[in-house]
Structure to design on (281 residues):
């Protein structure tokens, strides 16, 4: 409570804002309040609904509406119980990324696991969407499949699945994503072959290809593509049209993209014109 009171003292809330006014002036006050909320979230990296409710002396419902409105325009990242400062999603810990676009990722994962057949070898790249695929692989009614992955969280999910033979790549750990990469991981892929690769991505542009901001992961992903007979890129619609530092693969190297119906329709149309099978869920 002391922390909340300390933060509250830094926010100047007029009497009009506390009591409310009608008409256009009220709309202006809403915009001003949301501007201040955004500044607070940016300053403190994260704020809860309860903190903001106390500071602005308004209801939890109103604060939730404010945060939802700010999230819709990309000013903050909405999380359960509050909001985070907006920053590049790829810089977020995977534990936070898992909470973003959760419903869409679950639908994408459900569509992805339908492609897995008995006795097949599957490569699961690191990422929050591929993590959802791993969860659904646990429930597959198959006798035996092989799963190759470079992600510690995915390995933990599948370690005790009786129908999964798990092959873990070595390498240098990137703690924020629980992924292993580097020369050791690339070397471990040599001599392996897979039926299907589920490739997560941070950015996908029809003119450039599939991208990631991480150089070492881009190299490892390229090796994964080389050993897989079929490449399926998986990612929520917010990433379609986004660009990043490193290109993993050209669009022509991708057999299928599974994303959600929120993806930019013009981008989807362009991808299909380029010959990519785009599945919207």
């Amino acid at each position: 409570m002391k922390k909340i009171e300390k933060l509250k003292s830094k926010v100047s809330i007029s009497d009009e804002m506390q009591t409310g006014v009608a008409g256009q002036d009220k709309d202006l006050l809403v915009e001003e309040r949301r501007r201040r909320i955004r500044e607070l979230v940016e300053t403190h990296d994260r704020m809860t609904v309860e903190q903001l409710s106390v500071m602005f002396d308004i209801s939890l419902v109103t604060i939730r509406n404010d945060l939802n409105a700010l999230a819709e325009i990309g000013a903050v990242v909405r999380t359960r119980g509050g909001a985070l400062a907006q920053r590049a999603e790829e810089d977020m810990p995977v534990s936070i990324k898992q909470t973003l676009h959760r419903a869409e990722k679950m639908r994408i994962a459900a569509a992805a696991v339908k492609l897995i057949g008995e006795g097949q070898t599957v490569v699961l790249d690191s990422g929050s969407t591929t993590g959802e695929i791993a969860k659904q692989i646990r429930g597959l009614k198959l006798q035996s499949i092989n799963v190759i992955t470079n992600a510690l969280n995915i390995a933990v999910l599948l370690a005790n699945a009786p129908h999964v033979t798990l092959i873990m790549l070595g390498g240098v750990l990137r703690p924020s994503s629980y992924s292993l990469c580097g020369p050791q991981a690339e070397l471990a892929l040599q001599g392996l072959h897979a039926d299907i690769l589920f490739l997560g991505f941070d950015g996908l542009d029809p003119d450039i290809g599939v991208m990631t901001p991480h150089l070492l992961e881009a190299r490892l992903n390229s090796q994964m593509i080389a050993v897989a007979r079929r490449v399926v890129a998986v990612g929520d619609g917010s990433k379609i049209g986004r660009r990043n530092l490193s290109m993993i693969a050209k669009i022509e190297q991708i057999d299928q993209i599974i994303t959600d119906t929120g993806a930019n329709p013009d981008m989807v149309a362009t991808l299909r014109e380029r010959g990519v099978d785009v599945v919207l869920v």
User: Anything to note?
Assistant: The longest strand covers residues 194-200. Residues 23-44 form the longest helix (22 residues). The mean pLDDT is 87.
